Amino acid sequence: MPATYNKRILRVLKYISENPAGDLSLDTLADVAAMSRFHWHRVFQAMTGETCAQAVRRVRLYQAARWLIHDKRPISETAVSAGYPHVQSFSRAFSEDFGVSPGAFRKAGKLALPSRRTPKGQLKMFDVDIEYAPSRRLAALLHVGPYTEVGPCFAKLIATASSLDLWPHIQALAAVHYDDPNVVAEADLRCHAGLAIPASLKLPEGLEEVILMGGRHAVMHYKGPYTSIKVAYDYLFGGWLPNSGREPADGPCYELYLNNPQEVAPEELLTDILLPLK
Fold it and tell me: Is residue 107 classed exposed, middle or buried when 0-12, 13-18 and 19+ CB atoms within 10 A define those classes?
């Protein structure tokens, strides 16, 4: 239900406002929201149009703006109270968002909103079903870097499957994404590219075993190029989930690839995105 998720967002924003100099890490805010750390950040960004980090910055600087007008403490103390240990970094951030230095803002004596805002766009809709997904065992390779550059891992997996004559046993091609590209630098994104194989099959040398939980999942059916799949995630977390009455389980999303990019045009690619549910 959207009201439940809106209350969580308001609770997090209230916590930021009341603790601007405290621990506002992503995991801490996920705890305040009482939601899985795997999914909270995507929900927040998709529903509000800004990342948690952008919200922290916005609320901190607005609090600082209030103090500059209504409190006579030195600007250096205002910076610390707003979560900026160095007045130089505070002044730079404040000037970027309000268009003037903290000193000039205080001298003007008029409270104003930041000049830079992050608009929330219209979400494109996709079909989502709630289905029981079996537990899956992957023979996988870890990829660290932009998700769009996972191709060489799949190429190696396909070559391994061909050389060992595994194709009769391969149940699906999959990728497990552990990080949210909205909050993690591209160079640090982690995912496993994998071949779904039976439990009885010996794990090929050089590959890792990854077990995906079975159970109820939200299954989004996406059609289009892999490079544009972010819009599907935005709808899943910002549109479907808040209105579904469902809670995400504490596990990562994964993708199943239903056709071959070497055989169909990018706009004809079919991908199922699976979100584990409680």
Answer: exposed
- Partners of 172 in the β-ladder: 196
Strand partners, 153: none
pLDDT at 2: 62
Residues 203-236 have pLDDT tens digits of: 999 999 999 989 999 999 999 999 889 889 989 9
Burial track 235-246 (b if 16+ CB lie within 10 A, e otherwise):
bbbbbbbbebeb
Q: Which amino acid is at 253?
A: C
- At 118-150, the pLDDT tens digits run 555 556 788 899 999 999 999 999 999 999 899
- For residue 121, the SS3 value is coil
The β-bridge relationship of strands 190-197 and 136-144 is antiparallel
Helix (H, G, I), strand (E, B) or coil at 199: coil
Helix axes 40-48, 2-18, angle to 10 degrees: 100
Question: Which backbone phi and psi does 5 adopt, to 5 degrees?
Answer: -70, -35
What pLDDT does residue 114 have?
64
Q: How far is CA 27 from CA 53, 70, 116, in A?
A: 12, 32, 26
Phi (first) and psi of residue 219, to 5 degrees: -115, 110
- Whether the per-residue pLDDT at 104 is higher than 60: the answer is yes
| Look-up of token digits 């103090």 | 67
Name the one residue in this structure whose structure tokens are 């809709």: 125
Query: Per the structure block, which two tokens stand in for 42?
Result: 């995507």
Q: Measured between alpha carbons, how far is 91 from 98 in angstroms, rounded to an integer?
A: 10
| Contact yes or no for 252/36 (Cβ under 8 A) | no
Residue 256: CB partners within 8 Å, gap ≥ 6? 172, 173, 174, 271, 272, 274
**Alpha carbons within 13 A on the beta-carbon side of 163:** 8
Cα separation values, 39 from 9, 50, 104, 119, 171, Å: 13, 15, 40, 21, 27
